[in-house]
Amino acid sequence: MALKTPQEFRQSIADLHLRIYMFGELIEDYVDHPVIRPSINCIAMTYELARLPEYEDLMLATSHLTGKKVNRFTHIHQSTLDLSKKVKMQRLLGQKTGSCFQRCVGMDAINALYSVTYETDKAKGTDYHERFKEYVRYLQDNDLVADGAMTDPKGDRGLAPHQQPDPDMYLHIVERRDDGIVVRGAKAHQTGACNSHEIIVMPTVAMRAGDEDYAVSFSCPANAEGVYYIYGRQSCDTRKLEDNALDVGNAQFGGQEALMVFDDVFVPWDRVYLCGEIEFSGALVERFAGFHRQSYGGCKVGVGDVLIGAAATAADMNGAARASHIKDKLIEMTHLNETLFSCGLACSYEGVKMPAGNFQIDMLLANVCKQNVTRFPYEIARLAEDIAGGLMVTMPSAQDLADEKIGPIVEKYLVGQCDTPVIDRLRILRLVENLTLGTAAVGYRTESMHGAGSPQAQRIMIARQSNIDHKKDLAKALAGVGKPWDKGRAKVPTAVSAD
Amino acid sequence: MTDEQQTAPGRRLKVVYCGGCNPHIDRTAVAAELLADDPDVDPGATLHLSGCPRACASDHKLSSDDPGTVVVAGELVDGVPTPAPELAPAITRKLKE
Predict the structure, then answer these.
(1) Is A481 part of any domain?
(2) Are A351 and A368 in the same domain?
(3) A103: which of A51, A197, A339, B21 lies 20 to 30 Å off by Cα?
(4) A190 and A253, same domain (yes or no)
(5) pLDDT one-digit tens code per residue, A179-214
(6) Candidate from A350, A355, A362 with C-beta closest to B78
(7) Which residue, A281, A312, A329, sits at the end of a domain?
(8) Where are the beta strands (DSSP E) in A87-223?
């Protein structure tokens, strides 16, 4: 099958008849639901750009499995160039959508599993890798979206998976059969889950003895029997239910998160990629997290580009663009944004070829990238709010602006720079609001903090790879630590003559 | 990767070092231990010895398709985690496989 069109993608998601609950109700026509539609549009953009020659270099790749052109979101990275193009593709999509576009998790999951299944087979004599390659071929040939499902609810964080009072706090195997396994549990914060064709499940932590039933990885269709979704709320989400798009800020695109429930779901063996091999769950978690921490050096940068552009435009429309402090703030925002991009590229260019043949990012630099992402978007957002001014959170509604009696008053008092139509000024301020504290702030702020692992998770990885003993040796060598000291040669310096 | 290739006189193992900007292991100590052991390996056997997982000595590859080549990248031998004290014996085992 060739690459899907955006229309084919939409129809294919509708055809799945997913069980999605929102506000306590089962949603029937979820593809056209006003709260969900913007997130569908985001993924549709990954299909649309892939069909345009001007974006092909980033959006498409040549499959090492089939030799065919595939969407890069289904590609197994074959070089450091592939890794860097991934980051650039993500920046591009962030720019085009001003939102989390949700297709990255599946890409990062297949790239992590590719090497882990290979290494598990080598050590354990299993045959996960070949069946996983078959699965990747299936994703590529059908141009599918896969959700990478890692985060378990986790219950009491002080207890191991098998020690939890409720065993379902971590997704686990409840039955092993001749033809497959049956799993139960849930995955939380699942970005893009309700517009994916497939689910790829991975464990969420390194497992230890006793956790064998929790060391499980598999894939299943998004509409597998027993799978359902409870849609996550976003700040200001019900503005999407209003008729006028103005107050949404970005009415076309948006992110999506859901609680994904597995209620005794059967998985045939040919879709199982880890089943009880506890010693490989840690590697899988680290590699997926590493790839996803690299991803943020692209996607958040693209959204940052939009926010910087919105802030600069707001300054123009306020008539303040020539103020030196405004220019300096825009420079600072750009500096922070490009620093994130630099980290995303650096961990790509320092990537390595794994024994399985695929390329993996440099783990230390990927973690440094994400650690910066937990901070810089907040500062960029703060500066954007500073430049935009308080009006972005106090201005009247679209309904007021449209009102026959009140509208002209709103228009009279919200005028800014003389040549700017008031409606355009309000549009750009609503976009800043959307990105900094509206629906898109879920992706740009809190997801920057906790997505791909909370800050402390990166600090643990950084500590593990910081090579501090080498740094100590460097300092000691230059300072002469441990060398004999001749006290007699410590003389007072002779004064230098002015002549 | 540096082009420095070290084949000790009378010995058959060739060692290719990375540039050594961020070594997690003592590369020269690992090489010295190996060369002192003088493992009985085929002529042309090569050790790509990088100090960290970036694997610069082997052009960013954690393993090699060449059966006579072993890749060390920090505490990884052909991509398999191996503690520093066990590197030399693990390399010797690999070279004799």
Answers:
(1) no
(2) yes
(3) A339
(4) yes
(5) 999 999 999 999 999 999 999 999 999 999 999 999
(6) A355
(7) A281
(8) 146-149, 172-177, 180-187, 198-201, 216-221
Residue A356, in any domain of the structure: yes
Q: Say how far residue B85 (Cα) sits from the centre of its chain.
A: 14
Q: Could you read off the pLDDT of A91-118 as tens digits, one per residue? A: 999 999 999 999 999 999 999 999 999 9
CA distance A334 to A405: 42
ipTM surpassing 0.85:
no
pLDDT in tens, A57-76: 999 999 999 999 999 999 99
- The residues of A carrying an active-site annotation are 100, 104, 191, 257, 292, 296, 299, 447
Residue A379 has pLDDT above 90, yes or no: yes
- Please report where in the chains the tokens 């693209």 appear, as a residue: A302
A to B CB pairs, distance under 8 Å: 37
pTM above 0.95, yes or no: no
A152/A167 same-domain check:
yes
Residue A61: in which H helix or E strand, if any? strand A60-62
Closest to A354 (Cβ–Cβ): which among B22, B52, B79?
B79
Q: Which of residues 279-318 of A touch B (CB under 8 A)?
A: none
Q: Is B15 on the interface with A (CB under 8 A)?
A: no
Judged by CB atoms closer than 8 Å, whether chains meet at A352 and B53 is answered as yes
Q: Quick one: pLDDT at residue A498?
A: 57
Cα radius of gyration rounded to whole Å, chain B: 12
